[in-house]
Design brief:
The protein is an alpha/beta fold. It has ten helices and seven strands. It holds the Pfam family Hydrolase.
Amino acid sequence: MLFDFSGTLFRLEQDESWLTELTDHNGDPLDIEAQAELMRRMTAPVGQVVELDAEHVHAWHHRDRDPELHRKVYLEVLKKSGVPQADQAKALYDRLIDPSQWTPYPDTEAALKAAAERGLKVGVLSNIAFDIRPAFTARGWDAYVDEFVLSFEVGAIKPELEIFRKAVQALGVPATETLMVGDSEEADGGARALGCEFALVDPLPTAERPDALLTALRTHGVG
């Protein structure tokens, strides 16, 4: 079993306390629609979310391989998304990369536990530029995860075959016996090219998606 992280097991939820002090170019508070769009741009798994110059385009495409490029391009994304104050952008970015700020889906623990109790090898495979392990260890859920395969640590990103290959090798399970669960057909669905099965979940707000992970597992004979 392989699970994606953002939009699959956890989600960076809109937190009013983060955004109330944000101001636009005119010094006015960001309205609710602007706040929601800002959060979408911060967590979009694929696709360039704002117009960037060549230097930042390069950083965008390689952001999940290199933490420095990740920080550089997301500060630019925030600037282009209506957060011109550098101190405000930096504070918001620091929350983005803090695992304790991410919210698990209601069935994340149950899904991880169900897979582990079936005797399946479980991995978390993420395009990410920071260490997400603390989000699991803080809850004791690392006990259900055999391997974390993080793009910035292995130097490859989904949907490149290399990162899926590294993940199944780390688990010691053939790709043809592995299920990848993720929220992006483009990125996570790339596992099919290696021979994995794939289950798509919708990256809805956590309150609106109570059991998609468990449903995906049951559909594929797990749980």
